[in-house]
Design goal:
Chain lengths: 401, 119
C-alpha cells in the first residue's frame, strides 16, 4: 500500500532538511528520502563557509539574505551551530591578482555588498599571521563560517519535531508520473503517493532529474580537504586564496580546516571518492606559504567530497513547465552550504504560495534552452502564467482539507 | 544494516531464550547510569551524547562521528570506534558485526603540515 505524502523531498542533506523544516513550519508533512545518513554526502564534507564576497552576482541577493538567517539560526533551531561572523579575507599574492580582485570588489559593491580592498598593512591588522607573500586582500566583514554538520543536524531535528518524516538509508529509484504530472516516488523499500517532488539530491540531482525525463548540464567535481589538530584561537575569519585555490578557517573546536584544488580534479574524477596523493601536499604547501605559523601543526585527517557543478556554476531552482509537480533545488556548484537557509525558505514560499520573496528567476531550468519559450524572466515569478499553471499552491490546499 | 535492524525487530518472537536473556542484560546495561561515561577520550564525548544522536535517527558510525565528534580526535577513533560500535549495536538491537566501520581516512598517524607539504 503506497504511503501518502504531502510532498517528497529527495535528498537529506542541508538543502533537503532546510526545505523540510520550512515546509513543516507551514503545516505540511514532508517526507525526506536519503540514501545514506542525514548530511552524509556534500553536507558532511564541506568547509562550512558562509560567504557573500566573490559569489556570482546573481546569487548575491540570496547570499545576503542567508547571512541574516544564519545570524539568528541558533534561536530558530534551538541549538548552537558554531556560527562565526568575523569576515572573509581573500588573499592576493601578486599585483595581477590584486587588479582582478579590485575589479571584482567594485562589481560586488554595485549590488550592495559591503566589502573593501586592503593593502598588506591593513591585512596584517586583521590577521597578523599571514605570510610574506601576501600583498593585499579583499575583506567582507559580514562573511563567516559555521559548523556544517550541526546546521544540517539542527534542521533535521527541528523538521522532525514539526512532523517531517525522514527515511534514511533508502534510495529513490523511480518517480511515477501520470499524464506528465508527478504522482509518486518509488524507493528500494517504499512507495509514496505524492503530487510534489523536490530534487534536493545535490550531486545526484541530475540522476533524479533524469527520472522525470529532464537532464541538467551538471557534472561531479572532486574536492578535497584536511583538518589539523586543535590549536589555541589564532584568527576568526574565513580565509582563502584570491583565485579560490584553497580556503580554510579555524573551527570553534580549535582545529584548522583547509580545503583546496590543484586544478586537474575534474579530469581525473572517477566513481567513488578517491583521495589523490598530491592534493593534500598541495594544500599543505599553500597553507604554509600563507600562514607560516602553522607549519608544525599536525594534519590528522583528510577527506574528499563531490561538488554538483553546473555548466554556469549557479544552481537550478523552482518549478519547470515540462513536468508539473517537480521542483528543482540542486546544482549548487559548491555554494550550497552558505545559501541553504535562504533556499529552504524560498522553496517553501514557492510551494506554499507560488511566489518567492526574493526573485529566483535567474536560476530557472528554462535557462538551458535559449530561444525557446521557457523564458527565465517568467519562471518563479508571481505574475507568470506558466508557473501558476504548474504551481500547487499548497496553502490553499491546506485550508481546504 | 538498517534492513537487518528491521528484520531483527520483526523476528523478535523467534528468538531463543538465551538470546532474549542476552538482549535483556544488554538493555539493563544501557539503561544504567553510565551516560556520563567518557567514550571518546580525545574529544571527551560521553556515552549519553552518543546515545542521544542514535536515538535522534543517526544509524551509522560515520554519522555518529559527524554529529558528536566521537572518533574525530588525535587517535582518529582507534580507541573508541569499537566502543561506539557497541553502543550503536545495543541501541539498534544489532550485532556489533553488523556495524560498518567509519571510512578510513589518511594519514594513518598525525603528520606535520611541513612534512606533508614535502618541504
Amino acid at each position: 500500500m503506497p504511503e501518502k505524502a504531502d510532498i517528497v523531498i529527495i535528498g537529506g542533506g542541508v538543502m533537503g532538511c532546510a526545505i523540510a523544516y520550512n515546509l513543516a513550519k507551514e503545516g505540511l508533512k514532508p517526507v525526506v528520502i536519503e540514501k545514506s545518513d542525514i548530511g552524509g554526502e556534500a553536507s558532511g564534507s564541506n568547509g562550512g563557509g558562509v560567504r557573500q564576497s566573490a559569489r556570482n552576482l546573481k546569487e548575491m541577493p540570496l547570499a545576503m539574505e542567508s547571512i541574516q538567517i544564519y545570524g539568528q539560526l541558533h534561536e530558530e533551531l534551538g541549538m548552537d551551530v558554531e556560527y562565526v561572523r568575523q569576515g572573509n579575507l581573500r588573499l592576493c599574492t601578486s599585483e595581477e591578482e590584486l587588479e582582478v580582485m579590485r575589479q571584482a570588489v567594485e562589481n560586488q559593491k554595485k549590488v550592495g555588498l559591503e566589502l573593501e580592498m586592503l593593502d598588506r598593512k591593513q591585512v596584517l591588522e586583521i590577521n597578523p599571521h599571514v605570510g610574506e607573500k601576501i600583498v593585499g586582500a579583499s575583506f567582507c566583514p559580514t562573511d563567516g563560517h559555521v559548523n556544517p554538520f550541526l546546521v544540517t543536524y539542527g534542521f533535521f531535528l527541528k523538521a522532525k519535531s514539526l512532523g517531517a518524516r525522514f527515511y534514511t538509508h533508502e534510495e529513490a529509484k523511480e518517480i511515477r508520473m501520470k499524464k506528465g504530472r508527478v504522482t509518486g516516488v518509488v524507493t528500494d523499500k517504499n512507495t509514496f503517493e505524492t503530487d510534489l517532488v523536490v530534487d534536493a539530491a545535490g550531486v545526484a540531482g541530475r540522476k533524479v532529474a533524469n527520472m522525470v525525463g529532464l537532464d541538467l548540464p551538471m557534472r561531479p567535481v572532486f574536492s578535497e580537504a584536511l583538518i589539523t589538530e586543535a590549536y589555541p584561537p589564532l584568527f576568526k575569519q574565513m580565509v582563502g586564496h584570491a583565485k579560490g585555490l584553497f580556503y580554510g578557517r579555524q573551527t570553534v573546536h580549535g582545529s584548522f580546516f583547509w580545503g583546496g584544488f590543484v586544478g586537474t580534479e575534474q579530469f581525473i574524477y572517477r566513481e567513488g571518492k578517491p583521495l589523490f596523493h598530491y592534493i593534500g601536499p598541495a594544500i599543505s604547501q599553500m597553507v604554509i606559504d600563507f600562514f607560516p605559523v602553522l607549519k608544525d601543526l599536525n594534519v590528522i585527517r583528510m577527506w574528499s567530497g563531490l561538488i554538483a557543478q553546473m555548466s554556469d556554476a549557479i544552481p537550478v531552482l523552482g518549478f519547470t513547465q515540462e513536468v508539473p509537480g517537480f521542483v528543482f533545488a540542486t546544482g549548487f556548484s559548491g555554494h550550497g552550504f552558505g545559501l541553504a537557509p535562504v533556499i529552504g525558505r524560498l522553496i517553501s514560499e514557492l510551494i506554499m504560495d507560488c511566489k518567492t520573496s526574493i526573485p529566483i528567476n535567474d536560476f530557472c531550468y528554462g535557462r538551458f534552452h535559449k530561444g525557446s519559450d521557457n523564458d527565465c524572466s517568467c519562471q518563479g515569478n508571481a505574475t507568470c502564467t506558466t508557473v501558476t499553471a504548474v504551481c500547487p499552491n499548497k496553502r490553499e490546499w491546506l485550508k481546504s482539507i | 544494516m538498517v534492513e537487518r535492524f528491521k528484520q531483527l525487530k520483526g523476528n523478535g518472537a523467534g528468538k531463543t531464550a538465551l538470546e532474549k536473556t542476552v538482549q535483556a542484560t544488554k538493555k539493563t546495561d544501557a539503561s544504567t547510569d553510565d551516560d556520563d561515561l567518557v567514550i571518546c577520550r580525545c574529544e571527551e564525548i560521553t556515552r549519553g551524547e552518543i546515545k542521544a544522536a542514535i536515538r535522534n535517527g543517526i544509524y551509522t558510525l560515520n554519522g555518529v562521528k559527524r554529529i558528536t565528534r566521537a572518533g574525530m580526535g588525535l587517535c582518529q577513533g582507534q580507541t573508541c570506534q569499537q566502543l561506539v560500535a557497541r553502543i550503536l549495536a545495543e541501541e539498534l538491537g544489532l550485532s556489533a558485526a553488523d556495524i560498518d566501520p567509519t571510512t578510513a581516512r589518511g594519514p594513518v598517524r598525525p603528520l606535520r603540515l611541513e612534512v606533508f607539504a614535502n618541504r
